[in-house]
Amino acid sequence: MNGPVSRKNQQLEDAVLKKKPKTKYQRKWEGTFGKHTARCHPQSFIKQISKEGKPILLLVIIGTCASILDFTIETAVEGLGMLKTKILALGWLHTSSLMTFAAWSAFTIVVATLGCIWTVSVDRFAAGSGIPEMKTIISCDLHKQADQYLGARTFFSKAVGLAFALGSGISVGREGPFVHTSSIIAHRLMKHIGFFRRIYKNDILRRHVYNAACAVGVASTFRAPIGGVLFSIEVTSTVFMVSNYWRAFVAALSGSIIRQLVSRLRHSELSSYHPMFPTEFEAKSFTYAEYIGFALVSLLMGIAGATYVVSSNRFKQWWKARSAHVPVVWGLLLLIPVCLLLYLPGSIGQSSSSEVITNLCSTKELPSEWTDALSSIFVMLPLAAICRLVATVLSTSLLLPAGDFIPTFTAGALFGRLIGEIALVCFPDCGIVPGGYALVGGASLVASVTHTVSVAVIAMEFTGQFVYLNPLLLSVLVASSVGSALSVSIYDSVIISKGLMYLPILRVNLLEDVKARDVMEIDFPLLAKMTSIAKLEQSLLLEPTHSIPVVSDMEAMVFYGCVARKSIEELYHDRRTVAKEYHTEKGVPESKQAAKKENECRRCSSPNFRAQQHVDLTEIVPHHRTSLATLTKHPRLLALDEDNQRDRDDDGDDEPIYLRNDENFVIDSSVLQVDAETAIAKVHLFFEMIKCSRIWVTRRGKLIGRIDRAHLHAKILALKKERRIHLV
User: Fold this and answer.
1) Mean pLDDT to the nearest integer, 290-311
2) 3-state SS assignment for residue 695
3) What pTM value is reported for the model?
4) Which residues cross the membrane (predicted)?
5) Integer Cα distance of 616 and 587 in angstroms
6) In terms of CB atoms within 10 Å, which end of the chain has fewer, N or C?
7) Which CATH code fits 288-502?
8) Half-sphere exposure of residue 104, counting CA atoms within 13 Å on the CB side?
9) Equal CATH topology for 45-266 and 509-723
10) pLDDT of 624
């Protein structure tokens, strides 16, 4: 008895000790991520390096180039500032205040006008911030717009124009132009260097690099890598992939380090870490009771920021219509009130933004020269703040590269310092630090204007202190909420005024009754599986779309997928060539051949034919597109169709062609489809999440319509006007 039992126990023990078979779940994950998911292995590290090596190298190069560009522009601006100081130091200019103002204004107007001439002459797309354009490019796949806004001419126009704008002393910032120039650097490297071309061809990776380049622009400008990444995500992305987070930090960190390094070439006494606006706040700089004051500052700045956005948008629209013909001459006239506004408050308006912000956020008293023109700081501070905001509205309307961050931060710091000084007078024994209120006020106004929360992180990074962490977070949350409730952000206002193809954010609860069938198009080219050369030609001429849908037949309309336009063109030319050779061998009369050639020349020289070949999809009003039936009813096209009908019969254009799915002619069945009853909020979410340019609408497998990004954009704006609701 003991023998069989012992052998059975031994078999059980051996079975337990044996390796358990892998479950289906384990095999699935190992097949996806490799065999070393549960333990470290050198091979995994090597594979990761080989996979991410090119993107990392590209990000480091972008950060390095952007930092060197920042250093170069800053050096040029400092050179112009030194020239301005030497000119104003001439003794004969100090005989009267009028002479001093004339010399200061003349220098500002001349340098700013040179910047306008350069921008208009080289590339007008360089004017403005650049963040709205990047927000539009990142939001969807727009190759044409990317090449248009991210060209080499735009880069040189932006860089030199920004140096003139900052060196002139007008009220403009640099964060937007640097975001734009960094994105141009990334675009040119990916597109024109073969080593990185694989990244450019991958839509997802290309957008990731654009996001990282935007972070580099902010990080190198403010020496704020963390805030730069967060700010770039907030202002350029509606939906951000967490997997791209580390790439943005790699680029921002490399840009920040290189920027600190090259700064020591000109100032060797600088330490390894040197914030832009260093402060010396003590740990006990505020009490809990002062949170009420910080909330009040943020509330007022929220209202002021919304007012600034609305005023700036309306003035820019009016000014654009007025100065469209001779922008340089009108810009010259606009610079005169800009100089008056900056000179009016005294030396505080003539000082650089860096100097003003450093003094406002200081724990010390304000410089005595600021009160030479106006003896009371309670008059000087609000006057300087209002003049700064108005001057910023006028300055950013010029055809110059210009940002809004630093000017609005300066104006907010002036308002905040005013409230801090008033609180100090009212409560002299509470140890109130007015400089802290200036920091909170500046961050609050920027948060209201841009609708961002990361301004608090940037403010802490470029001051080098985290003492006001909680007050800053509280203030930017309140100000951003107030600004969002009262107006759109400054970047969205530019998108709306320029008509860029960016989908506005929807208020879902206000559009619950709108479905995909309400916004879809029903007139568009399509092909049946059994088609002909003539129908291939008609589908290619009707609309210059990048893909054409294929259905079973015109009765059932079962949706098979989409075919690339290039494949259809190749098939058309191949079949047309074969048909010509066949009928030539049959001996078609020469008179018919000559008549056909003449007819072809006449058709190709028709203005309607040219219009179809050069249609820009972004300029088409989607719900006014012409169907194929309507197109053939046009008198000129109908005459051409009648002239060509006999030639088609002779050339075999009506011979059937079966569209077979093979390696040379691929019918993509993985295109995005939605049901006709899908809510518009879900359709909008698909566009934002997948970054696609088109969605097909089906019902039980039958193709009934399509929704283009441009069409949905126009439909949302129409709904906004029709229902009078706030959609963006």
Assistant:
1) 95
2) strand
3) 0.79
4) 56-77, 97-120, 209-233, 291-311, 323-344, 377-399, 405-427, 439-460, 472-491
5) 42
6) N
7) 1.10.3080.10
8) 23
9) no
10) 34
User: Per the structure block, which two tokens stand in for 398?
Assistant: 């010029």
CATH class of 509-723: alpha beta
Nearest partner of 76 among 152, 156, 151, 168, judged by Cα = 168
Domain boundaries, the chain: 2-43, 45-266, 288-502, 509-723
The token pair at 120 is: 């208009």
- Could you read off the pLDDT of 620-658 as tens digits, one per residue? 333 333 333 333 333 333 333 444 444 544 555 566 777
Q: Residue 589: is it exposed, middle or buried by C-beta count within 10 angstroms (0-12/13-18/19+)?
A: exposed
d(CA 258, CA 63): 8
Structural contact between residues 493 and 309, judged by C-beta atoms closer than 8 angstroms = yes
Q: What is the pLDDT of residues 132-174, one digit of tens each?
A: 989 888 877 666 678 888 989 999 999 999 999 999 999 999 9
CA-CA distances (angstroms) from residue 693 to 304, 507, 665? 37, 21, 22
Query: Which residue stretches of 174-285 are H helix?
Result: 175-192, 197-201, 203-222, 225-236, 245-266
pLDDT(616) > 70: no
Burial per residue of 479-495, b for 16 or more beta-carbon CB atoms within 10 angstroms, e otherwise: bbbbbeeebbbbbbbbb
Strand partners, 547: 564
Alpha-carbon gap, residue 622 to 612, rounded angstroms: 15
Residue 657 has which token pair? 């062609």
Q: What is the pLDDT of residues 74-102, one digit of tens each?
A: 999 999 999 998 888 887 777 777 888 89
